[in-house]
């Protein structure tokens, strides 16, 4: 497959189209919906049917195209408008008016507020703001509750950290960007999803498998790109408040202002708190530990945008402070009086008759606590040079710099880390002859400076990675497209990295699209930062050998079909993906329950994923989504090929949403079924501290009701309405400093039912 991808890359980059000499046809494409004015449509596709000859309209909607011998059918298409075919005989000047489509089915498939692009070679699912409002969506980790493609789970029983999964693989294999800038990676992996408040999000693009080479080499399982609220199109004021029965309170305030026709600015602010005064309510399973940590977060983004005719620019800064405190309840109670009998050796060390002559004293009992404090700062700038007369051409530059400081303690374990990152990406795009042949060329640079401390050990490294890339897109409009990309990066520690990517799309019928993708991914793991959950245990951390970068190939196919049943639109989709690891950092929690070992893969590691999804609108205001997913994920641990821990083989998803007239009332319900998960082996523990080898299957139910007023929204909802909880989630909870303590064996919810309410207010 590797050789095939590289060969295809070379083949497609070598394609050139021969154009026959003929008459030159000129014309203009207009918006036919505008009855009183002639509004040009810049960027419309114009091509001869049955050929690869075409062009796109300029800023005034005009085009010029040679007429080949033997062809007279001219096809005109534009996003959001009905395509048209014109027979061209002797006329040399054309005026073409396109009509806006009544629905968006010509361009994209919608279900509620999630849609799949019909024009992209890769299957990209976009989650819009309207979809996000179906749940509380306090932050990015809670933004996938009504989406079947992304799984979210807690990583441990103490810190409240959440992680995503795609294709049965951890979120570390998913490239998460913020407006095409690398965002949640490195040291921010554990808590980074909570650093993006839900009210800041404009939309989320989710893609499975190999992504574009333009965005780098790190994506293996998929990509998530988060688009934030834009200052030029957002409400002038948007206020959101939230409170739940666990005592978590949030205030979000978005401000936007257009200074003039070209300049606009936005200010996004967030604060949340789960305070000490409600700590007594947060141990619902009575194991002595807080079910969720006490936390405080302050988060702000200020951005500016300049929108000119030939030049566009946006820049801004982000700042974050996040604090989390967890552990045993009495750790945070200065008035606790529980005592322990502690043996104090004799200062002289004198031993009489084989017995130490020390003494016993009563001292205040030692309790287990955890804490993490994070300070993060980021500055970014995006600029674009435009060519009004050739809108297919553009030159863009993305630059960002960030600093991430984190200090943590987990009982007697201490961990601190600092990551300083600089990223730049220069992108040029244009066409070859016509818009059926598009190219992107560019260069990037990534600098990561890591400094980590665990207990008394220090780990430091600097990664410097310059790279170049090229991507070629070949299109037969409304029939076939291929995107072939290749990038070459030079890593100062690991040498040259070649990353080929291939995406194919073929429209079997106007309502049926088949897609295929293949590509390679490469990443350098941060084992401690990516597995802080195991630090909340008495396991000894062991690193075996020199850990190498992770490399994997991903292959996938998917089929999307639109249909109409009883006069109502629907969609059915099938996704099949496989990931083969060339190397993987194995996290071994099975060989010894008192140890966690990290080492390079010796044997096989793969992930097979299958998903079938149905979207249907049986009534005008009723949207239904359901999906079944199957995961076959295995890796070699200590010489044995085993199922990956904490991954359900089977999962079922169901979501239904209903809105009354004018959407004054909205009702949303989601249910998810999780099949059994493998739990790491604890059979060598004392019997009281052993766990089953598999978890039971379970259901989760979420619901929300929203009442809309002119400027206000009031909403109330619940999560885990069935009140399902993992029994005894912490091993040896009463002996947190003993040899068997472990809070990392989490396969289900730690706390039960949670009720919330909130308010939204906006001024447009």
Automatic annotation (TrEMBL):
It is found in: Cell outer membrane. InterPro entries: Beta-barrel_TonB (IPR000531), Beta-barrel_TonB_sf (IPR036942), CarboxyPept-like_regulatory (IPR008969), Plug_dom (IPR012910), Plug_dom_sf (IPR037066), TonB-dep_rcpt-like (IPR039426). One of its GO terms (cellular component) is cell outer membrane. Coiled coil: none annotated. Pfam families: CarbopepD_reg_2 (PF13715), Plug (PF07715), TonB_dep_Rec_b-barrel (PF00593). Keywords: Cell outer membrane, Membrane, Receptor, Signal, TonB box, Transmembrane, Transmembrane beta strand, Transport. This is TonB-dependent receptor. It comes from Rhodocytophaga rosea. The lineage of its organism: Bacteria, Pseudomonadati, Bacteroidota, Cytophagia, Cytophagales.
